[in-house]
Amino acid sequence: MKVVVTASGQSLDAQVDPRFGRAAYLIVVDTETGAWSAHDNVQNLNAAQGAGIQAADTVSRLGAEALITGHCGPNAFRTLASAGIKVMVGAQGTVSEAIEAFKSGALTPTDAPNVAGHWT
Amino acid sequence: MRERRIIAIASGKGGTGKTTIAVNLAAVMEGPVAYVDCDVEEPNGHIFLKPAITAANSVAIPVPIVDKEKCTGCARCVTACRYNALACVKGRVLVFTELCHGCGGCMLACPEHAISECDHEIGVVETGRANDICFVQGRLKIGVAMSPPLIRAAKAASPSEGTVILDAPPGTSCPVIAAVKDSDFVVLVTEPTPFGLHDLTLAVDTVRQIGIPFGVVVNRCDIGDDRVTDYCQREEIPILIEIPDDRRIAEAYSRGCMAVESLPDVRPFFLQLDLRIRDLLSAPNGVQSAT
């Protein structure tokens, strides 16, 4: 299963970026094979508005079935839900630790955004 | 028909006294005068002018509707949108109405002609009279972030002759540009404090770029320091009037009273302001504008 984790750096050792739309990097991890790749999110990081929507669009285009992040606002959630992507919020630690938490079932999908828009 | 002259009252910094200057200037002017509250996020000129509102017109922007039958999910509309108001997931376009600026770009970009537009209400323009003053104000709907179209609608509802005073929002961003654009003169209201000076320089840069003649009103001129007046001298910017810090003006304001009505000795400041603006507008070589 392909999963996207928001990260503050470009490796599995990087900390999970608690922001979704304006996360520094999106890391795609294949939970079966362990293969991964980092994608920079600079375009959305600097967007005047709608960063969450476009980051969700990116996650969908990366072919992910689930997203692991800290927080997710209403517009991003609506986009992710329309794409059929499960959203796991409240992730902490490194990207690797977040993936392990997901595999062990410690992270469960949310059925609603956990923050208002522009929460930062 | 009388000519129309439009005077915008603006400032970089908020709370310098734009509304106080605008409503009191409107009150002392002779001949047909209109007051237009372009501070549509928080219009408060009505508190002082106490107009009788006689008409209210809804203002809307066009937002896209996507025909699901015709849409092929090519996402060209998403690429065209500069405001991130569209997303395309699983071949379906999602519209985020509250982010849309109503530019129509998505409609032009769609090769299938699958996008049409519908009205999205952003606010209301109210018109009425306050004694001899024609009163217009825009009121932005709560939760709406986009004020320029409403500001333009409020300006369009102002009379076609006489003096029109535009009470602009604070700052130097799009709403301010929408308000002061096409004015004949801009009055920049400031206070002699570091914040007042800092934001005045931003406002001056903005007005110079638009190329409108302008002058400065220094409000509460006896607080702070001389840096605002030094700056104006250095930049050859006319100081129109300086109003002293007077507790009675603040008290009148706090009661929603017009300073020129409750305090006769304040009236000459505004008569002088009117005179200075007229002088500068009729100067043979015009007044300082661009560069």
Explain what you see.
The complex is a heterodimer of chains A (120) and B (291). By secondary structure, chain A is α/β, with parallel strands linked by helices. Chain A has one domain: 2-Layer Sandwich (Nucleotidyltransferase, domain 5), CATH 3.30.420. Helices cover 28% and strands 19% of the residues of chain A. Chain A is built from four helices and five strands, in the order E-E-E-H-H-E-H-E-H. Chain A has helices spanning 42-45, 51-61, 74-82, 95-103; strands at 2-7, 25-30, 36-40, 66-68, 86-88. Chain A has a five-stranded mixed β-sheet, sandwiched between helices. In chain A, helix 2 runs parallel beside helix 3 (74-82). By secondary structure, chain B is of the alpha/beta class. Chain B has two domains: 4-32 and 159-282, Rossmann fold (3-Layer(aba) Sandwich), CATH 3.40.50.300; 62-121, Alpha-Beta Plaits (2-Layer Sandwich). Helices cover 33% and strands 28% of the residues of chain B. Chain B has helices at 18-28, 45-49, 76-80, 105-109, 148-156, 174-180, 194-210, 227-234, 247-254, 259-262, 267-282, and strands at residues 4-10, 33-37, 52-66, 86-89, 92-95, 115-130, 133-140, 162-167, 185-190, 214-219, 239-243. In chain B, the strands form two sheets. Chain B has a nine-stranded mixed β-sheet, sandwiched between helices. In chain B, strand 10 (214-219), helix 8 (227-234) and strand 11 form a beta-alpha-beta unit. The longest helix of chain B is centred in the C-terminal third of the chain and has 17 residues, at 194-210. Chain B is elongated and about 70 Å long. The two termini of chain B are 34 Å apart. The mean pLDDT of chain B is 94. Chains A and B meet through helix 2 and helix 3 of A and strand 4 of B.
